[in-house]
Amino acid sequence: SQQIGSTKDMAAMRSSFAALVLAAALASVLATPVPGGTVRADGLMTIAEAFGAGGIDDMALYHPEWHTEAAPGDPDTAQGHFLVKEAKSDGAVCLDGTPSAYYFRTGTGTGATKWYIHQQGGGWCESLSSCYSRSKGSLGSSKGYPATASLGGGYFSTDPAVNPMMYNWNAVYMRYCDGNSFSGSNASTTRYGDTTLHWRGKHILTAQINSLLRDRGLSEATDVVVSGCSAGGLATFLHCDHWADRIRENSSAARVVCMPDSGFFLDTEHGPKYHSGMTWAFHQQNSTSGLNDACIEANTPTNTQSKCMFAEHTAPHIRTPTFPLQAEYDSWQIDNDLGSSNSATINAWGANLTALVKANLLNQPQHGIFLDSCKHHCGEWGNIVIDGMNQAQALEAWYTKGSPALPNKGFFRQGEAYPCASCCKPN
Q1: C-alpha angle 253-104-118 in degrees, rounded to nearest 5
Q2: Which residues contact 214 (CB under 8 A, 6 or more apart)?
Q3: Residue 167 in contact with residue 158, Cβ under 8 Å?
Q4: Do the Cβ atoms of 70 and 41 come closer than 8 Å?
Q5: pTM (2 decimals)?
Q6: Crossing angle between the packed helical segments 201-211 and 231-250, to the nearest 10 degrees
Q7: For a Cys-Cys bond, which of 15, 144, 286, 400 suits 37, CB 3.0-4.6 Å?
């Protein structure tokens, strides 16, 4: 991998999004990412703003600070690593053909051999036009990625009061630029407009896992939590067993678990046509070999392998202990999958999601879940309490004791009807 040095100051990082698009158009396809590329750090956006324009967004919707150049001396600094060699040797590239990248912050003390690995989210592209639009932004190109990132707060917090189990662990932030949750393996490219589109998410995942094992010390890990939110949460469901297998090939005694946040997207076909979009992405990106092997095998006789793009169909096949953080009334799903504001319809949606979680995930005793009744999507780390514990505390209890030993058997559920404003508050 190639490590990029310091870049321009914070003022440059906040220049206009138009500058990013222009830089993306001018830079060479496989050139080393230019130091000082522009990154959006303009704070929170609405769901429509984040996903309405072909998915051009760098997840500022959830954590803008993670896409901001770290200030000198920032204790949360993570160094960026751009996998240029792997881009050339295996085609491990973003939609626009630029190298993939991840950010790494070294663990300390008792956390030196423990790892928190987070796969970035940011929706999917579900047509050639949306993939083209996406290729012009940070969810489809690495050309504007900063050299460092400030990984602070939430799951990455170094404050033991906020993040009691993982505050001093090694931290990895995997940037998402393939448009299909790190699953594509299409050897061909597609020319659309002025851009050649690449479908290589599986190869990005392989390259980043290899680099972490070879270059960062993951091969000596004792404890690993693999996570991600939104499309990264779905990626966690899809690749959980693959992560565990690869890590244990190198460190057989390593304990690996998965914690997908807001990744249990239902396989539905309401007005927004989510099922059709994800099915298109599966076929266009040739994702069969990039999904859960057991799920693919189970669906091959009926030629329904595309079902493995959905968490509800993958969950029954996951062997690795998994503890999702999930909203029963997930705001993104309500707006973009269900497409309804009717309370009765939303409550029925939540009941269906809960039933699927119980039938397809919690039927295996190694799994658990933190299932809240707050209308939100991703985040809220430490802000919601169920059975006397917030998300961070529940994760630690589940990780330490396991579902069978917990009074609730690992099923942390608020179980309130929608809407429930009080469900979003810590007390």
Answers
A1: 70
A2: none
A3: yes
A4: no
A5: 0.87
A6: 40
A7: 144
